[in-house]
Amino acid sequence: MALLNESYLELAGSYLFSEIARRIERFKQEKPDAELIRLGIGDVTQPLAGAVLEAMKQAVDELGVQETFRGYGPEQGYDFLIRQIIAHDFLSRGVPIAEDEVFVSDGAKCDTGNFQELFAQGNIVAVSDPVYPVYADSNVMAGRGRNIRLMPCTEETGMKPQLPKERVDIIYLCFPNNPTGVTLSKEELKQWVDYARENRALILFDAAYEAFIQDDQAPHSIFEIEGAREVAVEFRSFSKTAGFTGVRCAYTIVPKDVQVYDAAGQAHALNPFWLRRQTTKFNGVSYPVQAAAAAVFSPAGQQQIQATIAYYLENARIIREGLIAAGYRVFGGVNAPYIWLKTPHGMPSWDFFDQLMQQAQVVGTPGAGFGAHGEGYFRLTAFGTRENTTRALERIKNM
Amino acid sequence: MALLNESYLELAGSYLFSEIARRIERFKQEKPDAELIRLGIGDVTQPLAGAVLEAMKQAVDELGVQETFRGYGPEQGYDFLIRQIIAHDFLSRGVPIAEDEVFVSDGAKCDTGNFQELFAQGNIVAVSDPVYPVYADSNVMAGRGRNIRLMPCTEETGMKPQLPKERVDIIYLCFPNNPTGVTLSKEELKQWVDYARENRALILFDAAYEAFIQDDQAPHSIFEIEGAREVAVEFRSFSKTAGFTGVRCAYTIVPKDVQVYDAAGQAHALNPFWLRRQTTKFNGVSYPVQAAAAAVFSPAGQQQIQATIAYYLENARIIREGLIAAGYRVFGGVNAPYIWLKTPHGMPSWDFFDQLMQQAQVVGTPGAGFGAHGEGYFRLTAFGTRENTTRALERIKNM
């Protein structure tokens, strides 16, 4: 008799975006002529860079010719992409990374979801609250539901998690943060690295939004922090950096210095286990997609993606300053594409969702969807078009 | 302290292809002028179909224009591809499949590796011996190492697994088979479906090579068998069907009739759990890749991929008939791109590997790499070029 993994029954329903869709649908039936502006889901809207398009099409053409056809590539990614990643994303910031520490994948969601497979079920797992749901959900699926410790991020803590007072073994951090948009200074991030070194804990650092950092002092990579190579894994993505949400490419850095422990306390290097996981259960990223990702690092590609990032950051500024002018308390939106606002008078976040949709025809994401400490907050994203963003803020100001 | 999933320590080393590479390297150093012909790894060599290239490039162009840009797609795949899959791969054979029973992914390796996540650790898992290693390895990683039951495939059983005599809960079947190249008749496959229905077991059916079936009577899908919708999941791939090993697209069918059970014996539909797994840990396949896969089903795409499959099948015929003429005992190579040969005089398969490389400069895959019952056998693939395949067989005949 085929027995279910009953941990799946513990999962909360995939409620957030389906409930948003349900409310939008009802609203449209009531007001068919209303022009809704969607600043809810964190998906990009600007087209791919020209250099990326050209590289991808050229790679497709290569697959049409016997002499240049490529079949299976290395599961870890092609050298031509890995070398660009190391040079542009790490060496340029003084961080040496070896080629066999880079694992190219089809998404940071996949990597952050799959990485917990490498660990024993008994690990205590710390995640922020509010938080991107994948970290917790993937651990619930693996039977660690009761081992999850929430780290509240509140106005008092500047929306940042505090060092745990009880034992934790694996810590998910995401900076610049989704959903709050805040980032950590080097000094703040160093406290986490020091904590992990003292407690032989592991930090799973999601840096999917690092391209939006404007503050020269803020770290783009956790490996800018001394000692992080011993205790951290970093997830990066081309999704928001280069508009690849529909193209699918990301990568994960697993330094060879990171150690994990067996039940007898014996240390093991982590890197070979992720290699084994990926070579067993993954077959590498599409060759044209990897060629497209490599073109992101070309001079033309860099110029084009920086222009798009500047475009989204200007949207973020418009949202942030517009909200402040309208009297809202606001977090994020400076080094991140997300703006986290406090609802007026402690209004529940789903009520604010309805009010915003009814009175301003603007759709955002209720903070409660990201965890209990997201209640009373609301997320807007900077990934819309300029026109829609400007119109949305005018409507909010006139509410 | 971050604790390792110690099941990873139980995994046998990823030995097969690295050992083959090591022996090839040594041979090349000894005989730098020898022209090796590789009929070992199961990777395709023929370029993509023109219709596929055009569709993929057009999709890339769409991503370069604001009005046609696409970001995140549905994790389960785009409707335009799912409808083509249903019409061409199932309805055409009289098998109705609903759109929400199809899950598009980036590879059958990923899907066959990940699917076991949905099941409790205590399930008894049956795999053939010899076998594609992912089924067993992914279960070892999940802590089911001691729950794996091997089903020997021997000359006496026609290289086919026999119905288990002890309890098993989850059964991996692959037909046409990798590595033996044999397939099952409808009557034979029906025995497995009946077994699963009687025992409330689940069949995970890997049909990655179905496009190579020539025998009109052989089933392409397990869902051609009465009752299979209650007890089977099917994995399909564009890798060998359309040369997508470097492009990455596959799909999995999870019928809504399939039930699994909790510890109390309560039945649950399986389909929503795979949907939840994929929406939580996967972000969909690259849009240009899905557009390319849909073009496989166009009239021009079908004509072009059928020509390539016929090319590989002619290679298979050349290998099969050449080996028989040279006195070998041979399996497969008729409805499959793999030819499974018995080594002469019971020679160990690694010794035959060395002999073939030394005397014929041909590289194949030792059967022992696929399991203990692969010892004494050897796999050749039909995915080479015609010229190399013909030359390889001439050399083998002259050995």
Any overview of this molecule?
The structure is a homodimer of 399-residue chains. The first copy, chain A, has 399 residues and is α/β, with parallel strands linked by helices. The first copy, chain A, folds into two domains: 14-43 and 300-397, Alpha-Beta Complex (Aspartate Aminotransferase, domain 1), CATH 3.90.1150; 51-297, Aspartate Aminotransferase, domain 2. The first copy, chain A, is 37% helix and 15% strand. Chain A is built from 13 helices and 15 strands. Chain A has helices at 7-10, 16-30, 50-62, 79-90, 108-114, 134-141, 186-199, 239-242, 271-281, 287-295, 299-325, 349-360, 386-397; strands at 37-38, 102-105, 125-129, 148-152, 170-174, 202-206, 232-237, 250-253, 259-261, 267-269, 330-332, 338-342, 362-363, 365-366, 377-381. The radius of gyration of chain A is 21 Å and the shape is globular. Chains A and B meet through helix 3, helix 5, helix 6, helix 9 and helix 10 of A and helix 3, helix 5, helix 6, helix 9 and helix 10 of B.
